[in-house]
Structures are given as structure tokens and as C-alpha cells.
Task: structure prediction
Amino acid sequence: MKKKLKNRLLPLQLLCIVVLLTAGTMLFRDLNRYHRERVANQNLSSQIKQAREADAIDQNSHSALPSQYTGLKRQNEDFAGWLFIENTAIDYPVMYTPDDPEHYLHRAFDGSYAQSGTLFIDASCLPESDHILIHGHHMKDGSMFGTLPQYQDQEFAGEHSVIRFDTPDEEGYYELLAAFYTKIDPAPADDTFQYYKYTDLSDPEDFAAYIRQIKKLSLYDTDIQAVEGDRLLTLSTCSYHTDEGRFVVVAVRKQP
Result:
């Protein structure tokens, strides 16, 4: 009887071993891939960080950043700008491919496959327009926009209220305007705010409606205001509070 039971258990034990080995192999592969992607992004950001630090040391010298951005543009013509939030993990290039909107959803800066993708501008925007919507993955390891939902905390928001988005032509500093949870709704109710459809804010009524809605949805009051003609920056990432959830941060361009 014991021998029969042992013979029956043997296939099950072998199956468990195979499952564990397969899961372990997949986990190792994923960790190795995330590590490679993180190292590649760090190599890019180190170039920009050195130029940024050089600018900070000598404010009277010619900025070192434009040449760095020009270099990135030469490496990849899809490069549209650089997003940086001090003392956070967000320090990345931003891409723009209007003819292939989600080209960088799972591609690295160099075009190779990357699970974490690369930050990219919504195809309905222009990099030089008065409203730029940037998408990024909410990665579990904190890369890309994995740390963006930290803006749900008002104290964190106050300590990281300045968001920098440079283009190859100019530096840009933005102040936090609102942070909120929402969702993508393919068949929205009349009261659903489709923030992702407000990319063109050249119409004063659209601008006013957008500001009114984001202020209404915001998790806290930032005491920052935006008026018609201001340039806006919207950062969007997935959120798991509901199906098709999104976490959104909006900032307004600081006056020189």
C-alpha cells in the first residue's frame, strides 16, 4: 500500500519541482531584465546629471545641458526632452512619436525591447505646445512613473513641488498645480472628466474647464493658480485603485 502511494506521489513531486524551477527561471529572467533596463537608464541620466551639476556650480558659464540634449537627439531623433524631479527616481528622457503613439510603451531609449518602456508625450500634443501630456509606466521597482503616486501625500508634494521638463531648446520649471486619481472610461458618463482629451487648451473655455476640473479632483489645495496663456505639464500613469485607473499630476510653468 505504501509503495503504491509512493508511486502516485512521485509524479506530483516531479511536477512541483518543474513548476518551482520554471517559476525561479522566470523570476531570475525578470530581475535580470529590470536590472539591465535600470542600468541603461542610469547611464543616460548620469550624462545629464553631470551637465546639470556643472551648471549649478558655475551659473555664469554657458549651460552644458544643450550640448547633452543635442547629443541625445543625435542618438535618437525621437528624443523630445528630459523630465527631472529632484530627490526622486524620476530623471528620464521623454520621447515623441506622433505617427506611432505608443512606440515607446515597451521600448528603451535605444529602441530595444524594455518592459518598463520610456516616458513619451501624447501624440495629440506638440513638444513645444502650451500643454504637454506625458505618459509613463507605474513600475513596481519604482522606475519610470513608479514613484509618481507619492504625490498623493501632501507633505511629499510640498517637498517636491517643482518639476523640471527641459526641451533641447530651453529649460522649463513647473510648479505643482494638482494631483488626483481618475480612470480611463471608453464610455464615460456625463460627469466623467476625460483629462486625456484636453491636450489642446488654446480655447479659453477648454483651458478654464480643464483647470476647474483638476482643481475639483485634486487631493489637496496647492495654493498655485493657472491663468489663460500659462503653459501646463500633465504627468499620467496607471493606478490600481480601480479598473483602468490613473494617477495624474499637473503643473504650471513658472515665470522666469
